Amino acid sequence: MTVLIRFIIIVITLMFFTFFYLYINDDKYYPGADFTTSDMPDFEIKDLYSERLFNIKDLEGNYLINVWASWCITCRVEHSFLVKLDSKDIPIIGLNYKDEAEDAINWITRFGDPYKYIIHDYKGELALDLGVTGAPETFLLSDGKIIVHYRGEVNDMIWDDVFMPIIKKESLFDAN
Amino acid sequence: MKTIRKQRLITVLLILTTSALGSFLIIRALDSNLDFFFTPSELFKEEIPNNKRIKVGGMVLEGSVTRDKTNISFVITDYEGSINVKFDGLVPDLFKEGSGVVVLGYLKDKTLIAEDVLAKHDENYMPPNIDLKN
Amino acid sequence: MLIEIAHFLSILATGLFFLCFIFSFFLNSKDTYIINLVSRIYTHSFLIFLSSFFIYIWLAITDNFSVLYIAQHSNINLPVFYKVSSIWSAHEGSMFLWIIFLTFWGAIYNIATTNKQLLKARTLGVISLTSVGFLLFLLLTSNPFETILPLPPENGADINPVLQDPLLAIHPPMLYMGYVGFVIAFGQAIAFLFEGDPEIKWEKQVRSWSIASWSFLTLGIALGSWWAYYELGWGGYWFWDPVENVALMPWLAATAFIHSLSASSKSFILRIWTLLLSILVFSLSLFGAFIVRSGIIDSVHSFANDPERGLYLLSFIGLLVMTSLLLFSYRFNNLQSNKKIVSLSKESFISINNIFFGTLIFSTMLGVLYPLIYEFIYDQKISVGAPFYNAIFVPITLIACIFLYFSIDSKWQQSFNFKSLYQPLFLSITASSIIVVLAYYKFLIVSFWTLASLLIGSIIIIRYLIVIYFYFVYRKFANFFSIIAHCGLGLLIISIALNDNLSSERALNIKINETEIYKDYQINFKNLRVVPGPNFDSVKADFVITNPNGKVFTLTPEKRKYFARGQVTTETAIHASALKDIYMTIGDQLDDGSWIVNIQFNVFIRWIWFSAIMMVLAGLLLTHSLSRSRS
To answer: Nearest residue on chain A to C298, judged by CA atoms?
Structure first.
């Protein structure tokens, strides 16, 4: 009788926790990751430094867009990882979100520039079109299409688990 | 001896039947009170009866919001399918065109009559509660 | 510099707690010297850990933004109170607070337990081990001591204005105090099982601790409900949100537990139930922590997290629960009491009560897990809402209350005295039926469940009033703690039923200087002003309300737009009175200049929280009484 009880206890507890384990490890578990493909919106953008205007659709190839701001603390933490990506020749375009140009430029000067180019989205209009709700967020683009939208800080773990599988599959960035 | 065993048997049977009955009632209550969640494109792939309460989530289509006194109509889309929504009442602060929304309500002639419109709060930069999955 | 010290102190405390555990379980825990040793190590560990926390508070108050967490959640412009409360506004910090409270309960248990120390050392050991588990979780996966160096920001992040609220600041601490307080009962239960001597009366010692924790838990839940009511703008007080449900389940288990405990502490009856419940309460608390912090459930409350944290918590909790249950199964045979439960004794009512509560817990758990299971198997998202929970909770609670009614006359280990039953029964049924009939005619209530709830709620209160009467007139025994708490329950049932049935709301489309009429109330849109605030702009709408009796008052709901991220929040305006709340919010402005506003009449809603306060009061009074009689 007691052996039966013991057996039941072990089995039920194991079932309970195995279920959660599987659920957590499930592919779509990362709550911040969105893999829906969508087109890059047609948008006139402004460069942070030169105030030059051009259409974002003119950007070609495969690249990342990283949403950041000088008021965003977590962006500070993410920054060193972006520098690492930049040193591996992964092109990142910065989207400076709802930030004063002066503050943004000071921030970049102070901490370093991992971006190929920085968009100054003062009112957050492009961000709104992209579905951005805060910072930091990172998009992966390939041939004018957004294929990954990640909300939250990107670090080694997130990069390896969320971005790398797609990068490898589509062979986006050489020798990575 | 036998009466004690008989008593125990009765007790065990009683416990089993009440548990079975109880579980059955609870699971029945569960089944009849589930709210299914659909994206607009999933909505028309299935036959959804008019008396079934459902949840639909997506983005509020730009330019689709019209108001008439306390009534508001808009379109929810996931950029593949869309659905008209009608609601009488206040919409939450986070509700706006181009933003995510979840509506709880009933389908009536291809229109969703909403009981509740939700656009959940985020904490810091937490994303809205909608996952636009294929 | 300071942050490193705090970090180090936490690590040191972890090591010391572990040492405490080792000593308590691997040395002779009955030896007075060992008991004192364990006790002292525990105190030292706690004080070291507490110092770490105090340093952390200091860092928050002094705006030390080199600490990443403080930079992410606090801000120079915050009042001191909110700088402190920002510590527990997100995952890492609130976990820190959780462990502080966990070890704190252990610390006061340590000091207060001076006689009958048979189980003390091992109980402290269990508490220490649990603390170590959570401390490792904190330090390894959710480190609040991380720094942003060498260049810290000048100011912290802009805070979510919703979080700057006094109630919201107190609600988590109260809740945590409730959750983790049950570690004492859990620890003592484990120590008892480990020892294996059925003669030890572990139950008596944990009563006051458990009832105190229960009171905090009740208070914490009530505060959360009240906050949601005035802050979220929907006018509801309970949403059956998964996160609310995982707080409710420990509360249900705790309530069953303290009742079962009162039986087991008097005799050895219902011991098995009490033991299982003590394990269940604490496990459900931990399970709640897991669900909220693992990112599995998306909700207003959930902290965004990565799988690593979820997995750690899951394994830790799984291990703890499985070990306790296995230990229980090993000792099961020893625990079989020779005493049978006398039919219709108080113990029998309590065991029936346990079954009811077990069913409620099971159903709630099902409601929480089913969407997850369903989504996992069918890849289809579903949600379980109020209709399910209402369908389960209403009938079961009412039936349980009927049993409660009869249990009032029951006695310990004796059967009913049927003679004493009839007169009060007749009286209470008559009185409550009159109330129901009155309600039917005055409020025109026709709903079966509302009337049933009214009947049963009033029958309980009236029965207790009779008990009070008998106490004063015939000097018959009355347990006032039980009376207050259960009258609170009766009132809760009545308030919820009336609130559900009689409340109403309407959205109005109104222009300035216009008056709308709703339910014989005149609502005049007097004025609209734009008022600048410290970090927001506010649009205030003044409404002059005239009630059917001619009384006039103003309500000013507002909308605020915060500068930093353009976030818009709604501030509700509430006119509270004994019978109902008049609740207003403003929506959007239409193109023609008119506004959409919402007005709600929330009937009897204050009584809901008042009944919760009654229960809290009863619990605190009983705790006080128990601890007095112990010394």
So the answer is: A31
**Domain locations in chain A as residue ranges:** 1-30, 31-170
Interface contact flag, C325 A29, Cβ < 8 Å: no
For C507-519, write each residue's pLDDT tens digit.
999 999 999 999 8
* Annotation: CATH topology of B36-118: OB fold (Dihydrolipoamide Acetyltransferase, E2P) (2.40.50)
User: Would you call C304 and B123 a contact, using CB atoms and an 8 Å cutoff?
Assistant: yes
Q: Which of B116-120, C126-130, C409-413, C514-518 has the lowest mean pLDDT?
A: B116-120
Task: Name the residue among B79, B122, B131 with its Cβ closest to that of A133.
Answer: B122
SS3 A137: strand
Q: Do B98 and A34 touch (CB under 8 A)?
A: no
| Closest to C12 measured CA to CA, from C145, C155, C189 | C145
Q: Sign of torsion, CA B23 C380 C237 C546?
A: negative
**Phi, psi angles (nearest 5°) of residue C466:** -65, -40
Quick check: B121 and C162 CB within 8 A? yes
Q: Say which of B35, B69, B121 has its CB closest to residue C382.
A: B35
Report the share of chain C in percent with pLDDT over 90.
59
Dihedral sign (CA C328, C332, C336, C341): positive
Q: Which of B59, B127, B133 sits opposite A32 (nearest CB)?
A: B127
Query: How many Cβ atoms are within 10 Å of C306's Cβ, its own excluded?
Result: 21
Residues 6+ apart with CB under 8 A from C288: C179, C246, C247, C249, C250
Do the Cβ atoms of A6 and C329 come within 8 Å?
yes
Q: What number does CATH give the domain A31-170?
A: 3.40.30.10
Give the predicted TM-score (pTM) of the model.
Answer: 0.88
Q: In chain B, what residues touch C303 (CB-CB under 8 Å)?
A: 123
* Residue among C84, C69, C83 at smallest CA distance from C147: C69
Q: Is A129 on the interface with B (CB under 8 A)?
A: yes
**Residue boundaries of the structural domains of chain B:** 1-34, 36-118
Which one-letter DSSP state was computed for residue B48?
-
The set of long-range contacts for B71-76, using a CB threshold of 8 Å and a minimum separation of 24, is B76/B40, B76/B101, B76/B103, B76/B112
A contact test, residue of B80, B120, B123, B125 with most A CBs within 10 A: B125
For residue A23, list chain C residues with Cβ-Cβ distance below 8 A: 296, 372, 376
Predicted confidence (pLDDT) per residue in C418-476, tens digit: 887 888 888 889 999 998 998 888 888 888 999 999 999 999 999 999 999 999 998 88
Cis peptide before C172 (omega within 30 of 0): no
Q: Which chain C residue lies closest to A6 (C-alpha atoms)?
A: C329
3-state secondary structure C48-97: HHHHHHHHHHHHHHCCCCCEHHHHHHCCCCCCHHHHHHHHHCCHHHHHHH
Alpha-carbon radius of gyration of chain A: 21
Q: Which amino acid is at C251?
A: W
> Is there a contact between A25 and C307 if contact means CB atoms under 8 Å apart?
yes
Closest B-chain CA to A151: B127
Q: Which chains touch A (3 or more CB pairs under 8 A)?
A: B, C
Structural domain boundaries of chain C?
A: 1-159, 165-415, 505-606
